[in-house]
Amino acid sequence: MTLEDWIIFTGFWTLFVTMPGPNAFNCIVSASEFGFKKSLICVGAILSQAVLFLTLTILGLSSIIINTPEILMILKIIGVIFLIYVGIRGLIDAGKYTRPKFSFRSLFVKSFLIATINPKSLAGYLAAFTIVINPDAAIKTQMWVIVPTALTITCLNYTSVCAFGAFLKDKAVTVAFNTQLRRVLSVCFILYGLILAFLTI
């Protein structure tokens, strides 16, 4: 991979992960509920999803998904439904004054699913690797540069988002403000799912 290609990829990836989406909303919600340290589980789940998608790219499975519209559409539909479900569930739970019970496993699984089956993530990975990867060069060689770059940018971005969510938690000193924050973020999940449904399905 040339320096120019790496700069293009780095710019694209930075823009891709910093655009507000389901992963960011989930990090903010989790940090505002459980605090910064526990919300880093979300970052771990997002990085696990990134490793999964990067591995699929190395194995060539991403090209199969790109060239199979039916599979791509099914994944998009599942992702849209899941995002809307998370938003509706959040709206229902927002009025509850009890603090959600923390569970490492449930938070990791929820975060991993949001990262894995959300259409924005899927579309971003497919776009990044169809644009940047040189088909004439060995893909594994290119991945030695792409993987550390992608994981570093992803980690820094979502760690910052968790810190922002923890900051909001500190400011949400009243139950009413905390409830409103959770409602707004839940509506964001629903709107994001609807927008993605309109744009991709």
Topology record:
Layout lengths: L2 H16 L3 H13 L1 H24 L1 H6 L2 H26 L9 H14 L1 H14 L6 H33 L3 H26 L1
Short description:
The chain has helices at 3-18, 22-34, 36-59, 61-66, 69-94, 104-117, 119-132, 139-171, 175-200. With 201 residues, it is mostly helical.
Largest sheet: none
- Name the quaternary structure: single chain
Class from helix and strand fractions: mainly alpha
Whole-number count of domains? 1
Our count of helices gives 9
The overall pLDDT, averaged over residues, is: 78
Low-confidence spans: none
String of helices and strands: HHHHHHHHH
Number of strands: 0
* Shape category: globular
Beta-strand content:
under 5%
Percent of residues in helices comes to over 70%
| Backbone CA Rg | 18 Å
Ends distance: 34 Å
Structure description:
- By secondary structure, the protein is mostly helical.
- The protein has one domain.
- It contains nine helices and no strands.
- α2 crosses α8 and α3 runs antiparallel to α8.
Please describe the structure with a list of short key phrases separated by commas or semicolons.
201 residues; mainly alpha; 9 helices; globular
